[in-house]
Amino acid sequence: QVQLVESGGGLVQPGGSLRLSCQASGIIFVIYTMGWYRQAPGEQRELVATITSGGTANYADHVNGRFTISRVNAESTVYLQMNSLKPEDTAVYYCNAEIRDRLGRRGVWGQGTQATVSS
């Protein structure tokens, strides 16, 4: 069974940093694009950043210049380095991966990790 497991969330003061990790496990033939999304209370889930298997990154305007996405293909892991955090970055952060496994090509989600920015 394919799983994405996130870690690294927590409580941080404004201006601080957090580093999120997400590792895929299970029988996966190919991992295509991986990414991070977030959902604040009462809001819809929104894109934060994505990265292709070749390393091309894409960022939402509201995090560009503050967040950095990276991945280690050999470890099936994607990271999100979040710097200069603001209270409005508070949300549950979800990892997403487009994969190919025995069920075909599909998207999978992690369970989410909470990041809270507050003084």
Layout of secondary structure:
Layout: E1 3-7, E2 10-12, E3 18-25, E4 30-39, E5 46-51, E6 57-59, E7 67-72, E8 77-82, E9 91-101, E10 104-109, E11 113-117
Parallel strand pairs: 2-11
Antiparallel strand pairs: 1-3, 3-8, 4-5, 4-9, 5-6, 7-8, 9-10, 9-11
Description:
The chain is mainly beta. The mean pLDDT is 97.
Task: Compose a concise summary of this entry.
Helix content is 0%, strand content 58%. It has no helices and eleven strands.
| Strand residue content | over 45%
The helix/strand series, from N terminus to C terminus, equals EEEEEEEEEEE
Q: What Rg, in angstroms, do the CA atoms define?
A: 14 Å
Mean pLDDT: 97
Features:
four-stranded antiparallel beta sheet; 11 strands; mainly beta
